[in-house]
Amino acid sequence: MKWIVLALLFSLNVLNYTDKSIIGVAAAPMMKELGLNYEQWGLVGSSFYWLMFVATAIGGALSDRFGPRKVLAYMAIIWTLAQFIPFVASSFALLLFARFLLGVGEGPFWPVAINQMNRWFPQEQRGLATSIISVGAIVGKSVIIPVLVLLVVNYGWRVAFLSTAVASFVWFLLWMTLSKERPTGIVAEEMVQARAQLEKLHWKSLLPVFRNPSFLFPSLAIFAGSWVVAFSLVFLPNYFTEVRGLSPQWMGIVIAIGGLGGAVLGMVFSMYSDYLFKKRKTFRGSRVLFSSIGMIVAGLGFYSITMVESPIMMMVGYALEGGFVALIISIGPQIITTAMPDRPGTIMGLGIAFGSLSGIIAPLVSGKIIQSSGTMIQTGFSQAFLVSAILCVLSGLLMALFTKPDAGISLSSPTEEEQSSVSSK
Question: What pLDDT score was predicted for residue 390?
Fold first, then answer.
């Protein structure tokens, strides 16, 4: 049963990435049909993230209270509705609402999916299980995106949205039919103990953690990486077709192969970081400096897309950015946990929530920059790329200079006075 649950979580992550990406793939025909400019399109892209970080925290808490199986089912229904609305939408406001709703529904995916996975897999198998779920994004990027391009080109963008809505509803039916909340035995007992621990957290103790460089600068790097991801989802397909003159088919190929290359590089970089950690036994030598250099290379690689003519070289730049951004998104949370080693889930959630805020800002700022360029769209796009690159390079430099997690902090236990105060409440 646990492998069935894992397979369903993997397939849900495929849908998770597909639903986010379709807005970029269908950008040109949607903007033309609905009469939207780049600033408005940036608002559409940003709306996905407006409450995503809040939904991430709330969804995780609800999965503890009501069970992740039930929360995942409700999420799939929200995804179905959010993707069906554009199929019938004829206005900017409806499209905006659909993307906002999708962000609320997809925001809690990772904490809820990992919560469900943890109920079925013992600690020694959870790394493998998490990696399998993560591969869903790779499949979505390298396999499903070209399929979406074909749907948009041959049948229109509304049919592409309808297909994702149907897929989410089919997943819901399979989930309710095939899955269970949790098994009995040691894994369930581990979850009970973990929940009991979390209930003892005193939130005032988090304040010094927020000032810890091991939390602050890796979170900033995740913010920069998420900025590039948000920009790529909303604007990159349109840049390739409208500015660089690629056909929709070539655009799909560049994104698919570049994305697949980035995913492979990300896994290789993560494995090399693990190797360095085993060899050096320090976070700074194996995680911080390697991922800091990676963020600098990611920024340079991403901006190089604007400077090359060959689609192959565009793939290379996109793959370099994707590989090192994937590295910081996987390694960054590990660095963050050193700021609060006895509460890894809590501090990772806060760091990732902070990072996801860039999803709100990036499409708005980028859309404004592009729109303000008037008829010089290529200049506007180049400036938006440059902002993304500067954020990556700056975050990498700051993390390399100030993050020294091997001298991390740990929360002290609450005093008896604090305990009695909380108990009285």
Answer: 97
